[in-house]
């Protein structure tokens, strides 16, 4: 029996716990998700290193999963645009059962290996793409279909699974095993298995974006200010990075569509927006190198 399906004998009387103890048990078990990801951090770092040149060559991130795993892939995918201005078309999520499965379970969709293959091929996947394959069990047919198609098409494949020696991890070019063990509620991988996948994806995509010069120091300088909160954040980040006051920061940001990177270079180098953009282009988007040029 898979570890994620094996009942946790420590909590065989879970339904009899007082409510406070029940909640504490569920919360405390989440700590095992952090430990599982930490144990796999070297594999996540290897995935970042392998993905970087493909992204620099214009490749895409393609997330594939079913159920909770698939929804977590969708979540990571859609957050890259507002956080790092990563283009929508370069972050794709495939969910077994299609878009409807984001909100309502589509029975049997995860068992369709052929559909996983077809959905992946429909993206026109190629050698510069990175395909992130997510399956708590490690053997979801839909995900395996996509994995095998991706390998055939020459993409980098990174497989995330919550059971040791799982096909999704073993067959991928880089396998990441998040060994979270039994769930407090047996088989409910939306608990710590899902938490571990969320942490792993956050860590992978965030580290990759840092390597792609989307961050200066630890400042989110490539955010897309799509609402009032993010506009305020853009102003604040520019002030922190440059020492400028709010009026000066906002004035420059208004000239460059609130692109923090450009404003930081313009203010620090005391140059115009066009020259700031040119310096960033010459530095492959690195604020640090643009300032040193």
Automatic annotation (TrEMBL):
Miscellaneous comment: A lyase-type mechanism (elimination/hydration) is suggested for the cleavage of the lactyl ether bond of MurNAc 6-phosphate, with the formation of an alpha,beta-unsaturated aldehyde intermediate with (E)-stereochemistry, followed by the syn addition of water to give product.
Keywords annotated in UniProt: Carbohydrate metabolism, Lyase
Domain SIS: 51-214
Designated gene of the protein: murQ
Involved pathway(s): Cell wall biogenesis; peptidoglycan recycling; Amino-sugar metabolism; 1,6-anhydro-N-acetylmuramate degradation; Amino-sugar metabolism; N-acetylmuramate degradation
The family this protein is said to belong to: Belongs to the GCKR-like family. MurNAc-6-P etherase subfamily.
Name under which the protein is recorded: N-acetylmuramic acid 6-phosphate etherase
Organismal lineage: Bacteria, Pseudomonadati, Pseudomonadota, Betaproteobacteria, Burkholderiales
Gene Ontology BP annotations: 1,6-anhydro-N-acetyl-beta-muramic acid catabolic process; amino sugar catabolic process; N-acetylmuramic acid catabolic process; peptidoglycan turnover
């Amino acid at each position: 029996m898979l570890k994620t399906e094996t009942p946790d004998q420590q909590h065989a009387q879970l339904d009899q716990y007082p409510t406070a103890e029940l909640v504490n048990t569920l919360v405390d078990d989440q700590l095992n998700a952090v430990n599982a990801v930490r144990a796999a951090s070297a594999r996540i770092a290897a995935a970042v290193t392998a993905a970087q040149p493909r992204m620099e060559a214009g490749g895409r991130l393609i997330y594939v999963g079913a159920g909770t795993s698939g929804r977590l892939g969708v979540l990571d995918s859609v957050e890259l645009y507002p956080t790092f201005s990563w283009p929508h078309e370069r972050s794709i999520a495939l969910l077994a059962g299609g878009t409807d499965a984001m909100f309502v379970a589509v029975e049997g969709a995860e068992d369709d290996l052929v559909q996983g293959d077809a959905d992946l091929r429909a993206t026109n996947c190629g050698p510069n793409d990175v395909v992130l394959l997510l399956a708590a069990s490690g053997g979801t047919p839909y995900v395996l279909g996509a994995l095998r198609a991706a390998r055939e098409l020459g993409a980098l494949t990174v497989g995330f699974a919550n059971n040791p020696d799982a096909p999704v991890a073993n067959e991928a070019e880089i396998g990441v095993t998040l060994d979270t063990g039994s769930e407090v509620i047996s088989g409910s991988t939306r608990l710590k298995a899902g938490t571990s996948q969320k942490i792993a994806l956050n860590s992978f995509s965030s580290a990759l974006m840092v390597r792609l010069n989307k961050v200066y120091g630890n400042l989110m300088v490539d955010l897309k200010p799509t609402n009032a909160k993010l506009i305020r954040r853009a102003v604040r980040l520019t002030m922190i990075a440059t020492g400028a006051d709010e009026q000066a920061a906002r004035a420059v940001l208004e000239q460059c569509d609130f692109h923090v990177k450009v404003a930081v270079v313009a203010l620090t180098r005391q140059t115009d927006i066009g020259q700031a953009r040119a310096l960033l282009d010459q530095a492959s988007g690195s604020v640090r190198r643009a300032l040193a040029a």
